[in-house]
Amino acid sequence: MPLRPPWSIRRSTASTHEPIISALELKLHALKEGVNSSFFDPRRTRMRALLAVTAILGFTLPAHAQQMVSGTITSLRTGWDSDSFGIVINVPQINPAHCQNSDLGYVSKIDQPGYNTYYSAALTAYVARKQITIAVHNTQCIGPFPKIIGVNMP
To answer: What is d(CA 106, CA 141) in angstroms, rounded to the nearest whole number?
Structure first.
């Protein structure tokens, strides 16, 4: 009896609600044909697709999450009516998120993750007159100002 492709194999049953072919039958057919049956496993196919999507996003998203600018702090502001601070440095300001205010520095608020770390690093750099690198979010603003998402000191 010649071997038929798995999609053409039908069970000899009267019920139309049963699957046309079981996973075991598919594996047996693949073994007879010498085909790696794991290649046709639907779970692995879904995992391959998920891996491909994750890889594509992994390569494109980090490139669009932030921009960096380096300089020396010329002004360090604190919030008038909120726990926030702003940094102005001695180089032209970048404004990747197209925030309304593009010349009064970068801002962080206390409800933002990393706020205390950013503020400590900014105070240290300001007092020591050290150069810093500010990571600015590409798509988010805090009020009319670009949002700080990192402060690095050499």
So the answer is: 9
d(CA 57, CA 140): 19
Query: What backbone torsions phi and psi does residue 40 show, to the nearest 5 degrees?
Result: -90, 0
Q: Specify the DSSP element, H or E, that contains 122.
A: helix 115-128
Contacts of 1 (CB under 8 A, 6+ apart): none
Q: Give the single-character DSSP code of 79.
A: -
CA-to-CA distance for 119 and 83, rounded, in angstroms? Answer: 11
**Helix (H, G, I), strand (E, B), or coil: what is residue 11?**
coil
Contact 133, 70 (CB under 8 A): yes
Task: Reply yes or no on whether the pLDDT at 92 is more than 90.
Answer: yes
Q: How far apart are CA 80 and CA 133, in angstroms?
A: 25
pLDDT, residue 47, reads 74
What is the average per-residue pLDDT within 29-51? Answer: 67
Q: The pTM is what?
A: 0.58
Q: Any idea what DSSP says for residue 94?
A: P
Domains and CATH numbers, the chain: 6-63 (no CATH), 65-152 (2.40.50.50)
